[in-house]
TrEMBL record:
The lineage of its organism: Bacteria, Bacillati, Bacillota, Bacilli, Bacillales. The gene is lytR. Belongs to the LytR/CpsA/Psr (LCP) family. Residues 325-361 are annotated as: Disordered. It comes from Paenibacillus apis. PANTHER family: POLYISOPRENYL-TEICHOIC ACID--PEPTIDOGLYCAN TEICHOIC ACID TRANSFERASE TAGU. Residues 99-244 form the Cell envelope-related transcriptional attenuator domain. Residues 343-361 have a biased composition (Low complexity). It comes from the Bacteria. InterPro entries: LytR/CpsA/Psr_CW_biosynth, LytR_CpsA_psr. This is Transcriptional regulator LytR.
Length: 361
């Protein structure tokens, strides 16, 4: 006796086919997730988020007075050329004037996903352009905001600033919390305890630090200005690393909401989006940091830092190297090269001293 064959209705067969197609798509997407993760993220961003983000970034767009609007990057032969940006970390608390606690001259090379950060300690003694006086470089922000700071930094480094970005650390505290915390290399408890300072303790060796802890890490000031500047670099790097690890495109609009008035820049919103996609599609960013050291001195009872001339000269050379689109990646001057130059100079001096001693004997 033959078994009767059960026929599947066209309607059911169509439903099964759809289910199989969906399953197939999921399998392919899953298998290719690693390889195509970045392009898919960019596609998703374009489809669902770019309009939202651009609208939110308009709240932060703040061009400097008397300066013409310019495109974010010069594009030649479909390649983005290097550009510079002045990063200002502003510490503004309730009922207090804003202060630029962090001042970093950045050179961005989009094609290679490389960023050079040159930190200028806030107590650096220099001419304040537009004020006709010499003072701490961070006072330029109190005197004339982003414009005077930009002019002063350009004069100090002898290099143009294409764009600025001012970030209020209070706003970044919210961003850190939204990211679920950030990793910080704290191996020993940090205690702010001096009489006239805000009191806090940051415990060591935690896997993640929440917003207030991260903000305290940035504000800690009981060691040296040099170390504080390095902490600011570490803090900014930690936020970038956390964002890359989370890789959650859907969080971008809410993060933009938090930045709001806490973030200002003269870079066009549309250009920021295009640059972000360029970075997302490229290799993970490589960040090189260098701090212009100084020697402390007092003038009329006020503490200042006199910039080390060799550090300043080397910073200028590095900026020129990174800003030149014709510089090959392997030819870029790096912060480590300063140490090599110093070691070589020390060796040469020792050799010269030895030769002099031999001659005199």
């Amino acid at each position: 006796m033959k078994e009767s064959k059960k026929r599947t209705s066209p309607k059911k067969r169509s439903g099964m086919q759809k289910a199989l197609i969906v399953l197939l798509v999921l399998v392919i997407a899953g298998a290719g997730a690693f390889v195509f993760r970045k392009p898919l993220a960019v596609m998703a961003f374009d489809l669902f988020l770019s309009g939202q983000v651009e609208k939110k970034l308009e709240q932060s767009y703040s061009p400097l007075e008397e300066e013409q609007q310019q495109p974010v990057i010069v594009v030649k032969e479909e390649k983005m050329e290097p550009f510079s940006m002045l990063l200002l970390g502003v510490d503004q608390r309730a009922n207090e004037p804003a202060r630029s606690d962090t001042m970093i001259y950045a050179v961005v090379r989009p094609e290679e996903s490389k960023v050079l950060l040159v930190s200028i300690p806030r107590d650096t003694y220099t001419e304040i352009i537009g004020k006709d006086k010499e003072d701490k470089i961070n006072h330029a922000y109190a005197f004339g905001g982003e414009k005077m700071t930009k002019d002063t930094v350009e004069n100090f480094l002898g290099s143009p600033v294409d764009y600025y970005a001012a970030i209020n650390f209070e706003g970044l505290k919210q961003v850190v919390d939204a990211l679920g915390g950030i990793e910080l290399p704290i191996t020993k408890d940090i205690v702010n305890k001096q009489k006239d300072h805000e009191k806090f303790t940051i415990k060591a060796n935690k896997p993640l630090y929440e917003g207030q802890e991260a903000l305290n890490y940035v504000r800690y000031r009981e060691d040296s200005d040099f170390n504080r500047t390095k902490r600011h670099q570490i803090f900014l790097n930690a936020i970038v690393d956390r964002m890359l690890k989370l890789d959650q495109v859907s969080k971008i609009p809410s993060l933009m909401d938090m930045m709001g008035e806490n973030f200002k820049t003269d870079m066009l919103p549309s250009d920021i989006i295009e640059l972000s996609k360029k970075v997302l599609l490229g290799p993970s960013p490589t960040i090189e940091g260098f701090t212009i050291m100084g020697e402390g001195f007092r003038k009329n009872g006020i503490y200042y830092d006199a910039a080390d001339e060799e550090d300043l000269e080397f910073a200028k050379q590095m900026i020129a190297s990174w800003s030149n689109p014709d510089t090959e990646p392997q030819e870029l001057l790096l912060p480590a090269d300063a140490e090599k130059d110093a070691a070589s100079s020390s060796t040469n001096n020792a050799s010269n001293t030895s030769a002099t001693d031999t001659t005199s004997q």
